[in-house]
Structures are given as C-alpha cells and as structure tokens.
Amino acid sequence: MWRLRIIFKSISKQGIKFKLVFFQLIIIFISLNFAFTLINKNLDLKHSIDKLIDKDKSAMIGISVSSNDTDPINSINQIYQRISQLKMVDKIGSFHMDKIKIKKEDFNAIYLNKDAFNLYKINVRKGNSDIFNYKKSTDEIPIIISDDLSKMWNIGNVFTIKMLQSNKSINLRFKVIGIAKNNAVFWDSRNGGRPSINTLSKSIIIPFDKEYFYDDGINFSMKTQHTIVSVKKTQDLKQFKTAFSKLITDNSRFKYIEVNDLINKIYEASKPWIMLSLIFVVLLSVLSFVGFVGVMTSYITFRKREYGIRFALGSTSKELSRLVCGEILFALVITNLISIFPIIITSYILNMGLTISLIIKSILPSFSISLVILTITFFIYRSYILKKKIVDLIRGN
Amino acid sequence: MSYIKLIEIVKKYGDGEETLYALNKVNLNIEKGDMLAILGTSGSGKSTLLNLIGCLDNSTSGKLELDGKDITNYNDKELAIIRNTKMGFIFQNFSLITEYNVIENVEVPLIYRNLLLGRSKQLSKTDIKTLAIESLKKVGMEKSINKKITQLSGGQQQRVAIARALVNKPEIILADEPTGALDKANSLNIINILRSINTTSNTTIILVTHNEQLATFCKKTIIIEDGIIVK
Fold this sequence. Notes:
The complex is a heterodimer.
Chain A: H1 2-13, H2 16-49, E1 58-65, H3 72-85, E2 89-102, E3 105-113, H4 114-120, E4 124-125, E5 140-145, E6 158-165, E7 168-180, E8 185-188, E9 196-199, E10 203-208, H5 216-225, E11 227-231, H6 236-245, E12 252-258, H7 259-302, H8 304-312, H9 317-349, H10 356-386, H11 390-395
Chain B: E1 4-13, E2 20-30, E3 35-40, H1 46-53, E4 61-66, E5 69-70, H2 76-85, E6 87-90, H3 102-117, H4 125-138, H5 154-166, E7 172-176, H6 184-201, E8 204-209, H7 212-215, E9 220-225, E10 228-229
Helix pairs in contact in B: 2-3, 3-4, 3-5, 4-5, 5-6
C-alpha cells in the first residue's frame, strides 16, 4: 500500500517531462493499435473466406447472351438450367447486390436464391439458418440482417420498403427472421470493379424465390454476373469446365474463374495494403523505440538528484527500481487503455465493423511492446542510476 | 567505547601512477553526543569522509564501526536501514525534492521507514503527518507546511532539510557544508538549531565545513589535508 502511495504521489508531482513520456506513449500505442487493426482486419477476412463456399470445389461464372437475343431472360434461364443438370454439378446458386433505401438510409440488399443460401453457409444466429422453413405469410418476406443492423432491428421486427417487382413499384413487408453472425463475409463486386470479400455490414439478405420475392431484372442480373457452381468432387472442376465450355453458342458468352483463383486474385490485390501496414508498423516501432529511449533517458537522468536524495533518506535499490518501473508501468497501462478508444470511435464512425475480439487481438501487440518498454526503462535506470554512487547522484553528476 | 569508529580507512580513485587518495589510512573515533567539525580546504577529503560515515559511499579498504558493529560489508538493505533510522543528512544545496511541498519532503524518510521496518512497526498516515509537523515545529517552519520548495528562501529550505533530517529521530546528523549557500544571519540560525539539537537530544553531529569560524561552535574539530587527518 505504501509502495503504491509512493508511486502515485511521485506521478502526481511530476511535471512536463512525465507528461511528455505519457503523451509519447499514447501516440505510439494509438498508431500501433491502428496498424495492427488494419493487419488483423485483413487477416480476419482471409480467415473468413474459409467459412464461405467450399472453395476447392467451386467456380464463379458469368453468363451473357448477345444483345440480338429476343428473349435474353429465357435464354439465360435455359443455360442456367442446363448447367444445373450437368452430372458433376452439386449445387448452383446466384446472388445480386444492390442498394435500397429504408427511411432515407442506404442499405446493401443482397438477393440470394435458394441454392445460394446453401452455398454461402452464412451463419445465422437467433433464427433458423434455413430460412425457407419459415412459415410463409402472404404479405411478409423473411429476411436475414447483418449483425450491425441488430442494433436497429431484432428478430420478428417488420418494416416496409418500396421496391420494384416485375417492373412495378410496390410496398413490400420484410420480417427479420435471423441475424448473420458478426464475422459473416460476402463477395462484393457491386460496382463492377475488382471483386473483394467484405465483412457483412449494413446488409439485408433477401431470399430470391418466387414464393417471397421475384423480379425478372434482378434474376437476370444474378445469373449473368454472380453464379457460383459447386461440383461434387474437387477433381470434377476440370470436367465441369470442359462441359461448361461446350455450352457456349454463338449467342452466348461465359466468364469462368475457379474460386481459389479468385481468392488468390483478391489476396494479391490486398497484399500491397498488408505490406504497407507491416512496413508502417515496423517503421513506427523503430522510430518509437529510438524516440522513447531518448525521452526516457532524459527523464531518468533529469531525476538523478531526486533518486540520490531518496537513497540517502532510506530507499534501497530495489525500492527505487519499484518506483521507476511502477511509474512507467502505470503510464503504460493507462496509455494502452486510452489508445483503445480512438479505434472504437473510428470503427463506430467509419462503420468498420470491428469486433471486440479483433480489437483485443489488435491491442495485444501493444501490450507486448509495453513489456519491452518496461524492460528498456529498467535497463536505462540500471545504467544511469544504479551504477552510480549515491553522492554523485545527489550532486547531479 | 566509540560510537563511530573508522579504522585505517582508505578511499582511492584510479589505479597505478594515476591513483588519487581521497582518504589515506584515516583513523577516527567519534563519541555519542559529540558535535564534531571536519575542517579542510576544497578537495582535502572532508566530504568523502562524511559520505563514508553516512554510508553514502564505500571505502576502498579499512573498517567502519557504528555502535560497536562492523558495517563495512553491510548489504544494500542494511545500509538503507542505517541511513534511514540512525542518520539524518543535511546538504549544502539543501537536496530537497522540489516537486514535493514542505511537509511531503519531511514525510519521505518516514515513508521509507515504513517500507524498511515491516508492517508491525509501520506508522499510520496520521502519525506520519504528526511527526512531520512536530519536526517542522522544531525548526520554526510549521506555518509553511503546504508551501512549495521553490517558494522558500535558502535559509527556509535548509530548515526544512534539517526538519527532514530530524524526523526519524536519528542518532547522528551529518551536515555537509550546511551553511555554504546561506548568508551570515541564516548561517548563524542554522548552526544554533544544530547546537540545540545536539544539546537537547544528545544527537551526534558531524559537520563538514571550510569555515573556521563555524567550527568554533562545535565541541570538537578535526582538520583534514590531502586525505589525512592532521589535527
């Protein structure tokens, strides 16, 4: 108790030098936490892909027909039907992403057809994961919402959205029957750019089924752009590719990419960002280390006289070590805690969807670095204070 | 029996031809209740002698006895206990912790005493405050307990340093040029306080000075030159 009193009294009496150390530590930890959050976010997505579709047995395809085709919707449906009938095909599913407005707020609407639900393995909490077991109601469409939206709606909530159905704008009633788990991910190529895998955020997953919701335009878009085919065995993929190419006619064009290749492309695209984050962390750590050693050396040597006086008044080396390390430990704990808040606030403002486990993972390196800093402080103290005579310390030499 | 006994104490710096003897085979006996002045010119070794007696420095060779016990090879904690419980220090530059106020400075030795002597002998927060105020009263500084050190004059700072030296009721007070940074009036005031402590509580006072006039206030005087006691 007395030891703690000495430490707290000493801290409370320190002037600008200690505040500088404190401030520097806050900057270091905020920067490190941000950098590690970036890295962890990327790693988390990488890890999440495994939870997506069965990537070794799947391919993403795009089917399109000539603009001269008089009935493109029918043509696409026929090709889709033929693919699903291929003997090596296990599952085929399509999705489409769009923006919808609910009370002037934008949300991602992800339309998934029945088979795509099975392919995507989206973990649903609270509700039944197989939403098609939902007892059909004539005027309510069962939906799953992303985890972040559970702050806004809960299971059983019903809301109305004005949407297109068969080219007619009608009011549709949606009922929340499930909430996707917070680590659920999804392909995102809505803007026609490079596909990426993102954590589901502000998303409403709408079952695309004639029983609930159907629109020819969305159906066309789903099948032409985002169709996933899963085969029974990994080695069947080659066979599927051959069979699939045979379906090409003069009127139709196809895009084919195996999911593993797609994932590799996505990795390649995110690699520079991960590398940049890593370089940033390394540089920051080195700079922080050099800066911190300088400030800490100056801070400890600045207090030489005080330490000498404490020795003369009855402090042992051990007691003084406790004081010096206790002060810095206190500063490290407080600055570490303070540095968590900017991440939480930024995550909230930018809607980054950072989970608590991700934040904890991101601050762990800072805690490890804190231990290194504590050790460095002890060595600085040992070299500049313990190796000196008490009289020299009192004289400030 | 001498209370403090120095036997053949040598303190040297460097090796070989560059060896410098700060103290060379010094023998000294100090009785309990003595008020001893160590006189000498700058660099004569008087402060080194005081620091060795005060366990602030180690001798190269020789033996130091305190109250009949050889303390030459005492460890860090044993020396800290001696410095804290048996000795009080007064330095020329006051050596107060400037971040602390008056009473907080005086409380420091009592807090370390609590840490050194274990729970059974620990003083409460109130006891510490009472003892500190009591000590400040002895030097007439009880009205300035909450003042910052920087708000005090040199003479007042030295009186706070004396209060701090007295707070643990030490048996020995070691004063290194206690009036060196003070004017004549303040110097006289400080020396009177020291004399009063010596007579009222039989505290041994060892005072280092280069001021011969100041030494006349002490019961005994030794003169040191080039690390050797010459008188």
